[in-house]
Amino acid sequence: MPSRLYTLAIWLAFALNSAASADSPNILFVFADDLTYEAIGAAEMLDIETPHLDQLAKQGTRFTHAYNMGSWSGAVCVASRTMLNTGRFVWNARTSDLGQCVTEKQFWSQRMHEAGYQTYMTGKWHVSTKPDKIFDVVKHVRAGMPNQTPAGYNRPKDAEDYANGWKPWEPKHGGFWEGGRHWSEVVAEDSVEYLQKAAEDDKPFFMYLAFNAPHDPRQAPKEYVDRYPLDRIRTPENMLPEYPYADAICGKGLRDEKLIPYPRTEFAVKVNRQEYFASITHMDDQIGRILDALKKTGKANNTYIFFTADHGLAVGHHGLVGKQNMYDHSVRVPFIVSGPNIKAGATIETPIYLQDVMATSLELAGDAKRKGIEFKSLMPLLRNETTTQYDDIYGAYLGNQRMIKHEGWKLIHYPKIGVSRLYDLNVDPQEMNDLAADPKDAARLKQLTVRLEMAMDALDDPMTTLAEADYLISTQDAQEVQPIEKSKAKPNTKPKAKAAAEPVRGPWAIASDPKLPNVLILGDSISIGYTLKVREALKAKANVFRPCSANGKGAENCNGTTNGVQKTDGWLAGQKWDVIHFNFGLHDLKHVSPANKNINSNSLDDPRQAEPQEYRDNLTKIVAKLKATGAKLIYATTTSYPDGCIPARLPADASVYNEIATEIMRANDIEVNDLYTACHDRLGELQLPKNVHFNGAGEAFQANLVANAIERALP
User: Fold this and answer.
1) How does pLDDT run across 489-538, given as a tens digit for each residue?
2) Long-range contacts of 659-664 (CB under 8 A, 24+ apart)
3) Strand 335-338 vs strand 346-348: parallel, antiparallel, or unpaired?
4) Where are the alpha helices (DSSP H) in 17-141?
5) Contact assessment for residue 218 and residue 278, using Cβ atoms and an 8 Å cutoff
6) Which residues pair with 673 in a beta bridge?
7) Beta-ladder partners of 694
8) Residues 39/42/48/49 CA torsion (nearest 10 deg)
9) Whether the predicted model's global pTM rises above the 0.70 cut
């Protein structure tokens, strides 16, 4: 009876969906778990057998640098899959109300359904909503990982321990063998069954086929393990007995890290990689069954096939085992596209995010606007219309790690211990030569640190600054599958950090001279870029302050006027001010989610954080608070920015909001420092590409203008 009901469900799904034409391409998405970028034969990096994926790469295009953006959870797959299915960048995905996403039909499968597709899912889910609410047909829904037994951890200690211990092919250990059939084989069987039904219908399908493999427990039939004798396995070139910062970045007691004993030995790493490779090759054979079934439908020529994974895995690299780190082996994944008009046998080295697959499939399905989606379609790259996708690749793991990759260089920073690691990937792809302490690369380190902090700001990272390391999501929250609903928290407020005996004062702290006038600078990240330079220019002339952390390690971004109305009293408290230089606008005019103004949007169809009338009202309130201090006030106009910035901002809106602000300043007899006009014709020289932020020359240029304006106003 269950089988008949399932068959009926498939037929009903085809019967009820009729919006898409028969010519619309089918989308077949195959998703692996814990699969590092190097672990397919087509990458030509490891001695591993994946003939079916290799053939897929030959008939399609392989992206060599696909990344996962990071995680707010120790279970990195939760964050990766939530981003994938909502289309939102990591911190916006974390705070998304998934129930509301379901109601508003914002999930990937729901958007495909609205485009007229029959949607099908089987395998691993690990997203905090039930798949049967958002897919037309669901067969098996697997947990985040198969059950792992105590015997599967801390092994093998030596050859004797291996001989007497856990074996990946023994069904008595459960895991992938639970239910009587290996879970990878079940995904293939489910997929073949669905494709046989799809062959009899003209309507397009969207298939979401999610393997749990090669996640641990890394189980496969014995014949697959036997194909990888230990003398065939090579240990990673960057293998270490123990990563020097393991405790700080993820914890040596993390579940993944407990799979292999400390110190890591060649034997233990080889055994674990043997089982990893066997699981991958077994999965590849199941993918082959699915691809064969697709060919038999007669629909292969009108089907786009996407293959990727939720993140990578270390398995011995750098002395690590899991995916909770920012090295390429753990954040970078294979990514293959095959289908109509996709160039065969091609590779694209442009860095992308794996979650770009969602936007790509929606474009292929005819959803041109892709409203509310932050990730980008890959079609312009595949059509050779562009060679860039993102200016930088950003990564994060809880409050422990941050990463930026730019032009072949990577900076990894560990905020809690103040350690940076710098790698030139152009000559050091295995990330073995840390250049952070090399004086020759000091400028590069500084440049990437600035870019990383700008990315943190643009992506609504909960950590204010790297120096402050004020990631305020609890450990409990980080371990839960359920993302927090940001609407339940007060907007733009963060719990106060615990008081600590901190002898070191950061660069934003100031030892004021009581003989000098006091200057306060308020504004967003643009003003953060020039504040310290202004302070230096006015040394011995004024005490230049801006809101910052208690220890002075991090500057506070004042954000938009909604935040300003709430916080201005606090910024003004405890000091007599002689001059206040301020700006609001860049955050107000950015586009945000209709459901939550604290979630950025890439769509110009979505509302602004503060629409013009709200901006006018808020700024008027802020000005009244500032005037009450008796200080000389100077307002800086919002600088312009190019089209295509993330989050979405309409370039013309800078003028609209500046006009409103200027009108308010005139009415209150407040001087206007017109940074917009001063910078506008020199953006190519002063501003970072496709970015609201300025380069070093731009910050210095603005600092000179601001310092001069303030100096003229000093008593």
Assistant:
1) 333 433 333 333 344 467 888 889 999 999 999 999 999 999 999 999 99
2) 660/612, 660/615, 660/616, 660/619, 661/584, 661/585, 661/619, 661/635, 661/637, 662/635, 662/637, 664/616, 664/619, 664/620, 664/623
3) unpaired
4) 51-59, 76-86, 90-94, 98-103, 108-114
5) yes
6) 636
7) 687
8) 120
9) yes
